[in-house]
Each structure stands twice: as structure tokens, then as C-alpha cells.
Design brief:
By secondary structure, the chain is of the alpha/beta class. It has 2 domains: about 60 residues, DNA polymerase, domain 1 (Orthogonal Bundle), CATH 1.10.150.530; about 280 residues, TIM Barrel (Alpha-Beta Barrel), CATH 3.20.20. Helix 1 crosses helix 2 and helix 10 runs parallel beside helix 11. It contains 12 helices and 14 strands.
């Protein structure tokens, strides 16, 4: 049986026309039912003849992830723990913004990077997610918002479980399907892919022109990055920044560097000065994130005063910096915390 949500538009057309022998225009109808309307049952495709729906049921399946756990924060953040078809668990988070939601997406079950501040990294790597599973998170998230009368889903960030560039083929297939105006219809500027940085994969991602990257830097020197992100630091920080200097950007676009502030580790003004020396001459902006310790902290959280001082120093040195609001602390919204809690139980 074919997992029909794992077919890009051209592949769906080949299946519909080449294998099923039905008119080409049916492809667009089926595609819209799958992605615009988000149906999980061929019988709901009411503009298809009954015999066609029966044939589709005999050849293909629509696999939506099962929502195992829903947690809602006092600030409106919603975390969904999803069970995939093989029983694997992944997390996705819906983050309230000003009149809309942003969804944080996973690309792998677990993660191989082993960053010392990340619960997902401590779980280890299980497997890559398929396009169907990656985009199934969007269907689940959008459906949850619609059913509960919440504002619409407008932005997507690939900042959940896993390293997106280590699942590059399925990431690119997902991005192409997301960009399709007859389907989920997310524009390039509303999608961000967060990565620790792999040079050849970044080059491919840049050529595809489907998204903007955000680089998980988290340290101002190679030595400190190697301590807190030992596997990511296999790409030297100088080589990574040089690769991002070459990344193709459109007018007014800048590279985003993410910097997770860990209490007493990388949050001093000396670290801020080192970061300025690293990025001050580059076309970029810095996203500052205060570490969310949850109930099983791996590091200390920085104080509010420390975070504000760090940001102020960057602005003083003319490095654009913003502090990302820490959302969902009361529901284990940081990556991997909910899954770790469920596995512990």
C-alpha cells in the first residue's frame, strides 16, 4: 500500500495517471483534499466517484500521526506528542504569536548530535522521519488549531527533534510540498530551518531556494562550542561562518545565528565581546534564547539581568540581536522534554 502523503505532486500525478489510469485533473482534486482540507479518509473526497474512492482505498493509505498527549501552557503554547505509524514518538509545538501561531517541527526520531543541553540529544538517534511524517505534524497542528477556534498557523520552524540537514532529502521534499500554492501554501519567507551546520548540505539547501536557515551557534569560540556541542563542532566554526557568508540571500535578508544562553557557561560579557568579534562584520542577526531547564535541568538558566546585559552589549556594538520569548516552561516545551517525561513514566 502506498503512503499517499509521502508523494510529491509529480509523483502523485504519476500514480493517478500512470498506475490508476484516471484523468490527470483528478490529481489536483486529490492533492487539495489531502493538503488543503487535511482529510484522513478517502470517503471524504466527495467530488470523486465512489468507485474511484474504493480503488484509492485498495491501493493507498492516508497516515496521519496519532495525538498521544496534548499539553497547554498558561501562555497559550500547545505541545503535541505524536505517535507515528510504527509507534515512534515525536514532538511538535504550537507557539502563539501576535494573532497567529508558529509551529516547531521535528525531522528525526531522536537526534545523533548529542548536544549537551538538549534532552533529545541525550535520547540518541532512532531514525529519519519521512515526508509524510514531517508534514503530518503540520496537518495535526493545523487541525488542532481549527477545531479549537484558535488563530491560524502562519509560520513554520524546523527547530524540533533532530538535525534537519541530516535528513536532507526528506526535508527538501517536504519544503517543496509546503511551498505548493495548491496545497499547504507556505511561502519561503515563512519557513525557517534550524541547523548546527553541515557545509555540503547547506550548499544544497541554498541552491534549492526553499527556505531561510538559522544556524545554531551557541558559542563564540571553537573551543567552547566543542565542549557543549561536541559533534556539531566537527565543522570548524570558521568554516561554518564562511559557508554562511556565501549562502544566497535575497535583498534585505540576513543570516540568523541562534545563541542559547547557558547560565555561567556562555553568557558573560566576555562571551558577548567574543561573539561581536566573530559576527560584527557579517550580514546577520542574533537570536538570543535563555535556557529552559524544565524539571530535569542539564544546565542552569541565566538570570534575566544577564540576558538583558548580553543583548545590550551586542546592540551597543551594532550587532542586531533579539531575545526570543521563553514559551511553555510549565509544559516541558523545550525540545525532547515531554517525550523524555513520557518514557520515564
Amino acid at each position: 500500500m502506498i503512503d499517499i502523503l509521502d508523494l510529491e505532486y509529480d509523483a502523485l500525478e504519476s500514480f493517478v495517471v500512470g498506475e490508476m489510469g484516471i484523468p490527470r485533473f483528478r490529481t489536483a482534486q486529490i492533492w487539495q483534499w489531502l493538503w488543503q482540507k487535511g482529510v484522513d479518509d478517502f470517503d471524504l473526497m466527495t467530488n470523486l466517484a465512489k468507485n474511484l474512492r474504493e480503488e484509492l482505498k485498495s491501493r493507498a493509505v492516508i497516515r496521519h500521526p496519532q495525538v498521544d498527549v496534548v499539553q497547554t501552557s498558561r501562555d497559550g503554547t500547545v505541545k503535541l506528542l505524536l505517535r507515528l505509524d510504527d509507534g515512534a514518538l515525536v514532538e511538535t509545538v504550537l507557539i502563539p504569536m501576535d494573532g497567529y501561531y508558529t509551529q516547531c517541527l521535528s525531522t528525526q526520531v531522536g537526534c545523533a548530535m548529542g548536544c549537551t543541553f538538549c534532552n533529545t540529544g541525550l535520547m540518541g538517534f532512532e531514525r529519519n522521519m519521512t515526508m509524510s511524517e514531517i508534514l503530518g505534524q503540520v496537518l495535526a497542528g493545523r487541525g488542532y488549531l481549527l477545531r479549537n477556534g484558535f488563530p491560524p498557523l502562519k509560520n513554520l520552524v524546523f527547530m524540533g527533534m533532530g538535525e534537519p540537514l541530516l535528513n536532507l532529502d526528506n526535508l527538501i521534499r517536504s519544503l517543496k510540498t509546503l511551498n505548493n500554492p495548491d496545497g499547504l501554501n507556505f511561502s519561503r519567507r515563512r519557513i525557517t530551518v534550524s541547523s548546527v551546520g553541515f557545509l555540503s548540505q547547506l550548499e544544497i539547501l541554498g541552491r534549492e531556494d526553499l527556505t531561510l536557515p538559522a544556524i545554531s551557534l551557541h558559542a563564540p569560540t571553537q573551543e567552547l562550542r566543542a565542549k557543549i556541542m561536541p559533534k556539531a563542532a566537527g565543522t570548524h566554526i570558521d568554516d561554518l561562518l564562511a559557508a554562511m557568508d556565501r549562502y544566497p540571500l535575497r535583498p534585505r535578508e540576513r543570516v540568523t545565528y541562534e545563541y542559547l544562553l547557558l547560565g555561567g557557561v556562555n553568557d558573560s560579557l566576555e562571551h558577548a565581546a567574543q561573539l561581536v568579534r566573530l559576527l560584527g562584520h557579517r550580514k546577520c542577526k542574533v537570536n538570543l534564547i535563555a535556557y529552559n531547564p524544565g524539571d530535569r535541568p542539564l544546565y542552569d538558566a541565566p538570570s534575566e539581568a544577564t540576558v538583558l546585559a548580553f543583548e545590550k552589549y551586542l546592540w551597543k556594538k551594532k550587532v542586531t540581536a533579539t531575545i526570543r520569548r521563553s514559551m511553555g516552561q510549565d509544559i516541558k516545551a523545550a525540545c525532547g522534554q515531554l517525550k523524555a517525561d513520557q518514557q520515564k513514566d
